[in-house]
Specification:
Layout lengths: L1 H13 L2 H6 L2 E3 L10 E11 L7 E13 L3 H16 L8 E16 L3 E14 L1
Parallel strand pairs: 1-2
Antiparallel strand pairs: 2-3, 3-5, 4-5
């Protein structure tokens, strides 16, 4: 269920017209040839979240946004767009239902050569339908 969800999440993020216009790539992992800005899944993990009747998973996903620039404020509008899109993921996904989406934490860091990375972690609770 985790792999299917990762693919679905990337497709959902990439299909947003504002994000696709602002980013050079939205991928499941770090892109091999895209320049910043790009968004990718840095890591994910899942645990059982089943009920007596339904199979379920709690999936934690860390999204990493790579940008260029010295000022943190430059990234804030793009980070807000990513957060809005993640949190608007439709509950009904055919094979499963997203029972909840919870923001866990964020981390930003300035890197060499004017690069900046913002890590956004979310928890999704999924139930098979």
């Amino acid at each position: 269920m985790e792999s299917r969800f990762r693919t679905l999440l990337v497709q959902w993020l990439a299909s947003d017209p504002l994000l696709s216009a602002a980013l050079n790539a939205v991928t499941e992992e770090a892109p091999s040839r895209a320049s910043a800005p790009w968004l990718g899944i840095a890591a994910s993990a899942s645990t059982d979240w089943s009920t007596k009747q339904l199979r379920g998973r709690e999936v934690r996903v860390a999204l990493e946004l790579h940008l260029r620039g010295e000022e943190a404020a430059e990234a804030s509008a793009l980070v807000a767009q990513v957060e809005d899109r993640v949190e608007s993921l439709p509950r009904d996904q055919g094979e499963f239902t997203v029972a909840s989406t919870t923001f866990l934490r964020a981390r930003a860091e300035q890197r060499p050569r004017n690069e900046r990375a913002v890590l956004l972690e979310y928890r999704f609770r999924l139930l098979e339908t």
